[in-house]
Amino acid sequence: MRTDTGQVFRLEDYRPSDYLIPSTGLTFRLSPDNTTVITELAIERRDGVNGTPPLELDGDGLALRRIEIDGKPLEETAYEATPDRLLIHEPPHSGSFHLLIETQIAPARNEALMGLYRSNGVYCTQCEAEGFRRITYFLDRPDILSVYTVRIEARRDEAPLLLSNGNPRERGELADGRHYAVWHDPFPKPSYLFALVAGDLGRVGDSFVTASGRQVELGIYVERGKERLAAYAMDALKRSMRWDEEVFGLEYDLDVFNIVAVSDFNMGAMENKGLNIFNDKYVLADEETATDADFANIEAVIAHEYFHNWTGNRITCRDWFQLCLKEGLTVFRDHEFSADQRSRAVKRIAEVRTLRAHQFPEDQGPLAHPVRPRRYREINNFYTATVYEKGSEVVRMIRTILGAKKFREGMNLYFERHDGDAATVEDFLKVFEDVSGRDLSQFALWYHQAGTPTVVASSSHDARTGEFTLEIEQSVPPTPMESRKRAMHVPLAFGLVGPDGNDIAYTAANGADVEDGIIHLHKRKHMVKFSGIAQRPSISLNRGFSAPVTLSLEQSSTDRAFLARHDSDAFCRWQAFNTLLTETLISAFRSVLGGKQPDFAPDLPQLAGTIAADEELEPAYRALTLTLPGEADMAREIGSNIDPDAIHMAREALLRAIGEANRNLFSELHVKLRVDGPFSPDAASAGRRALRNTMLDYLSALPDGAARAADHFDTATNMTDRIAALTVLAHRHRASDNARNALASFEAKYRGDALVMDKWFQVQASMPGAQAVEVVRALMEHPSFSMANPNRVRSLVGTFASANQTGFHRADGAGYDLFVDAVLAVEKRNPQVAARLATALRSWRSLEPGRQAKAREALLRIGAAKGLSADLRDIVERTLA
Ligand code: PHE
Ligand code: ZN
């Protein structure tokens, strides 16, 4: 593992390399402990470079075995090789030469899961961001595009399957039971997109004919015996390929497209050219083992990686500061895909909930950084919600500002102008300026300025003059290393909702650019006056969540309740009710802190009943609306001096109050919504299950709740229902026999299925209350658990630290002790996963003083460990700063 050197990389230091590598040949002689890699590079000095500057190649833990230039071994004085770098003092004066390098690596001992490693006996690679340098010395940076030819040799019995990027070229037999295959990828690509897979895997095959008639062989490779579980992923892949043709005019460009599922993977999946490698949890699914959420995630991740073929691969990033160029844009594309495949309204609400749950706390805490950062110590720590999710929101705003037509023209120009390039955020913005004639320089602040902007708005109506006035003020809070902020261009979609629920037309608007239902804020303060408004409207603001801001809108509960029923914008309708819930929860929290039982006026529970019963609304939408803000959502809204126990009590009290008030209705729905007949993962069926399980959540808090949940569990015919029941049993009735039996029978049934056991770990790791610490400690010894597998670690320790407010933040600090032990144990093998885990403490400063002190101590203890990796040190130091 790379220990920290303290080096900081800065955007302003970007400089093109002196040398280019137009072609790369790789030969792998695979063996678990002793793999030989022969790298043959055609190297050329970049035009305009004077003299013969030294050539410095990146390495990471490498052992050099051989080095030749133009067929001749290099003298020892001509170069310097360390594990981390290869320096050739004086390359040939012609500036054009062949470099041969032989390195030796041990995939079986690679536990960091970067570079070439073994997962379940399968050789696989992970090169983004800087893993290629763990395979061979190279200019391991995204602006070095090279054409790869790859030869793989392995024992046939161990690895009948040999895959790499591009198209297959040749294969054959070798002596001693070995064989080989050669792959050629005609598209120049950066090293981070290189991939190799070799092993014995099952295959699901299909084919796809592109719009222009290219026949593409599709393959999904999974552990033998699990082929059936890849059917949904294959279907999602074909739908993604069609969608990208229809919506963006983008076709696939090789003869084959392969996906391989592996069980040890640091992230979700990887878009290697023509050979995507996936965490198996985003491939394998059937109703017995996967929830509706899993199906939706598989669809989204398959699409995301496929869409990278254009946004990421054909057009890549100049440097890692531009990461959002491929990630934010590709997330935007996968969001749009899912919206088209499912329910757009429901998808949008779910996106906003994710953004608020993950990106907002990041943007509001010590790890805040711009969508395009200007500095980093460890790039692995910048695969963040800000780069991905806020990055996607920024692209969405460009579409909002330009309109769908101009946006598409801009995208077309982007592909036309930059195909084959390693591009920048500036290149991206420029195409939209060029097609629209708009100046996006103020808008560009969304890429450069960190922090979630706050927009405060209030309104007044003058019946006499027919004038409706909106006062709006924006501000961006200070973030690390950025104290002064400039006013942003904030596009706020809005409507003035009249008493009949329809939007009211106005005759004129002054005080801001208002066009097509959007108020464009450009200044800190705007006073927008609408004329021709006879009756006081209810303002519906930030419709569709058009801007990723914290909106604080002064509005009466009556208006909110009205909008919760009548707003034509589904997002704002959801938001109105959600705000009512949040306000009620926060006042209940204050009661609990003051030692009082919270009590609730009847109108909110009544409104919940009205929404639950409204057959005009999609079940999935009703489920989202009736899901109470989570404990972490409440903590974020409260902001400081957090006491997680009081939050938990307040939330449970409101849940009970709503359940009691609607007992009959919710019971009826719980019975009626049961989906009979064959299982289908489609959005409508999933929506019915979601609403029914939301009903169960409420009902489980009532006196006969445990019995009902146990029955729900016993009669479940799919994983979605089973997990919903198991969760309420374990969380609300943990001492009951019902809970114990359900946990035991689930374990007995799924013991052999690691991905399903992850759910069993998650349910218990998120169990509220003090005893969770002991439960998680005990589960760390469970035979299905392993500190070496990222999915296991995330399910048990990750869930505990990020989704168990009361357990993790236990007042005596025992949750933090567990956390420190686990982070340090993981870090020994896998610094990247450890660093990700450590971000769970990023909001430590908003805790009440006692917990705050203990959390700080925990961070200091991690920081004091010897030989800490760059990954973990970076997170700990920024979190404490
Ligand atoms: N580029 C991958 C994606 O977003 C994520 C990833 C990053 C995977 C780094 C592995 C390592 O699709
Ligand atoms: Zn991506």
Offer a few descriptive terms.
881 residues; Immunoglobulin-like; Neutral Protease, domain 2; five-stranded mixed β-sheet; globular; binds phenylalanine; binds zinc ion; alanyl aminopeptidase activity; Peptidase_M1_pepN_Ig-like; aminopeptidase; zinc
Explain what you see.
GO terms for molecular function: alanyl aminopeptidase activity; metallopeptidase activity; zinc ion binding. InterPro entries: Aminopeptidase_N-like_N, Aminopeptidase_N-like_N_sf, PepN_Ig-like_sf, Peptidase_M1, Peptidase_M1_dom, Peptidase_M1_pepN, Peptidase_M1_pepN_C, Peptidase_M1_pepN_C_sf. Its EC number is 3.4.11.2. The protein has 881 residues and is of the alpha+beta class. It folds into 4 domains: 9-308, tricorn interacting facor f3 domain (Immunoglobulin-like, Sandwich), CATH 2.60.40.1730; 315-447, Neutral Protease Domain 2 (Neutral Protease, domain 2, Orthogonal Bundle); 454-547, Immunoglobulin-like (Sandwich); 586-660 and 731-880, Zincin-like fold. 40% of the residues lie in helices and 21% in strands. The chain contains 27 helices and 33 strands. The strands form 8 sheets. The protein has an 8-stranded mixed sheet, with no helix packed on it. A 5-stranded mixed sheet has the order 17-18-19-21-20, with helices on one face. Helix 4 (344-363) crosses helix 5. The longest helix is centred in the middle third of the chain and has 24 residues, at 570-593. The protein is globular, with a radius of gyration of 28 Å. It starts with 8 loop residues before the first strand and ends with a helix. The mean pLDDT is 98. Phenylalanine binds at residues 126, 128, 266-267, 269-271, 304-305, 308, 327, 383.
